[in-house]
Write a structure and sequence with these properties.
The protein has helices at residues 11-25, 41-47, 62-71, 78-82, 95-99, 107-117; strands spanning 33-35, 91-93, 124-127, 131-132, 138-145, 149-158, 161-172. By secondary structure, it is α/β, with parallel strands linked by helices. The chain has one domain. Strands 1, 2, 3, 4, 5, 6 and 7 form a 7-stranded mixed sheet that branches.
Length: 173
């Protein structure tokens, strides 16, 4: 009998497959730098005592949108949420190591330092915890691309694969 962690459709396995598909959809390859903890721009709204913007994706089920508002705000280690990430060849970095590139407060020189320190990457990627429908056929996830913009993506699970159905830019610098 399989343990719960080895079941093919457990939440961490599905989340890992979702992250792999998101990386593929974004054209991210080996060496992609990703923050070691889940992060969401919505966290900043909550920390400042502001209302969290409602993200509207017309094809998303209400249960997924409601769950996303709570789940996306959780701060967790990537492996806790997405399981074993070894097969994705990511360069997982602590937030402090990423911020260290920008110590002089000058964006241009900070990105130069970042690119020198992480030459294989196509920028910095941050992802939120994903939210799933109760039957795990839909998922929402937020990601930030190099601090330039963030998108919320809706995925549909069909034939044991995640397919991007809809995405919306939710902020840009």
């Amino acid at each position: 009998m399989n343990s719960p962690d080895s079941e093919p459709n457990d939440e961490r396995t599905l989340a890992g497959e979702l992250l792999a598909q998101l990386l593929k959809d974004q054209g991210r390859g080996p060496g992609q730098v990703i923050c070691a903890e889940t992060r969401s721009r919505s966290m900043g709204h909550r920390e400042r005592g502001e209302n969290i913007p409602l993200i509207v994706l017309p094809k998303a089920r209400g249960e997924v949108v409601r769950q996303f508002r709570d789940v996306a705000l959780r701060k967790c280690r990537l492996e806790e949420v997405f399981g074993d990430l070894d097969g994705l060849d990511l360069d997982i970095q602590e937030w402090e190591a990423i911020q260290d590139c920008f110590t002089d407060c000058r964006i241009e020189s900070g990105w130069k330092t970042f690119r020198a320190r992480f030459p294989r990457t196509r920028g910095l990627l941050e992802v939120s915890c994903p939210a799933f429908s109760s039957d795990f056929s839909q998922a929402m996830i937020e990601y930030t691309n190099t601090g330039a913009y963030g998108e919320c993506c809706l995925y549909q699970r069909e034939n044991d694969e995640w397919r991007l159905v809809e995405k919306k830019c939710i902020w840009f610098a």
